[in-house]
Amino acid sequence: TLPPPPSRPASRRSRDGPDGAGAGAGVFADEDWLEAMPAHVLAALRRPHPWWQIGAAIVRRRWLRPIAPVIVSPVVALYCRARRTLKKRGVSRRRWACSLCRRRARWKCVRCLRSYYCSRQCQNVSWHIVHKHVCYKPTRFWWSVVVYGVGTIMAFPGILRDPLIYDLGLSFIPASFLIMGIIGGGIATALKKGFGVDIRGRLLEVIVVVCTIWLAMISWGLVWSFFGVSDQCWGVFGQWSEDISVDNNEMRGLKIISPLLHGMRKFLFNPARVWFSMCNRAAAKTGPMARWICSAENFVAEDGTGCFQTAGNANPDFFLPEHNGEKCAADLVTVASFWGAASTVLVAGSILKRRERDRRAAGRAGGRARAGRNVGEPRPHQD
Q1: Residues 6+ apart with CB under 8 A from 318
Q2: 67: phi then psi, degrees, rounded to nearest 5
Q3: CB 116 within 8 A of CB 105
Q4: What is the pTM of this model?
């Protein structure tokens, strides 16, 4: 990583003044430091890419300089973290572009860790023109928390009314991204090793992001249906209408859709209902804080019977036909299929990596044996 460069000294002027005989003698003008730059830096400044133009337009306005890092830096950090995750999963290519000239980057800013450069010259020019005005300082972190916290409440006003539902629903966004990244990386790796086709890059990243939004929306509808709002399911692949009757003593007369959904009901939805009921009662027993935690329309009783109205409506049987849950059952099968596919890809990838490491270790051991040395004997030192 590269530290921020020192401030460029002001250009020196001759004592004789701009009109004197000694004007310009041994003196550097303001543009001389740019003329000393390599050709790729000058070409990037003559034809800047769109993101650089946007950054330059922002820093030209002094009133935007303290506001821009607070708003833009969390978005850039989220993008960098997401792209690093996709790189680890084999979706993105393992390279970063220079923030100035768009060549392959090798270093990054040591303070914000979000601006990449190919050389010291690119970092120096970028710092003096744009980056020193928008570099994310640690003191601006809490301002970003305040701004995005208020923005989240304004965008989702129900988060104060049903915090449990929104917390659970929003947690499916990174989970869906990870699931789609694992599946996309597995497909890209299989195509590259099996057929020599490399599909990694921007297109695959866009596909993963679109599929993430799609899967997160399906999961969001399932969360609301679990808490009693049954019309939020999408039913993207139709309705699951197959009914399988089971022992009445075990299921108390209910019907299940499939063994998969029966297992999810028994090991996931029933424990989830118990957990949310415990959180509901615990929030209602916080004493004077209950009036702050629980809104007036959601506070059920003062004796600790409940705090959030929707938490008491949790229904582990929301996907059954008795509750008009055919669409929810289809969505559950869809989400469970993606989770199962991601788990399979993850396990298969771990096994293949382990075999690859063993094969390489065996190859190195065979090379040492052919060289006339024992397997455990270290390589002789050569001066």
Answers
A1: 225, 226, 228, 230, 325, 328
A2: -90, -35
A3: yes
A4: 0.75
41-100 per-position pLDDT tens digit? 888 888 888 888 888 888 888 888 888 888 888 888 888 888 888 888 888 876 788 888
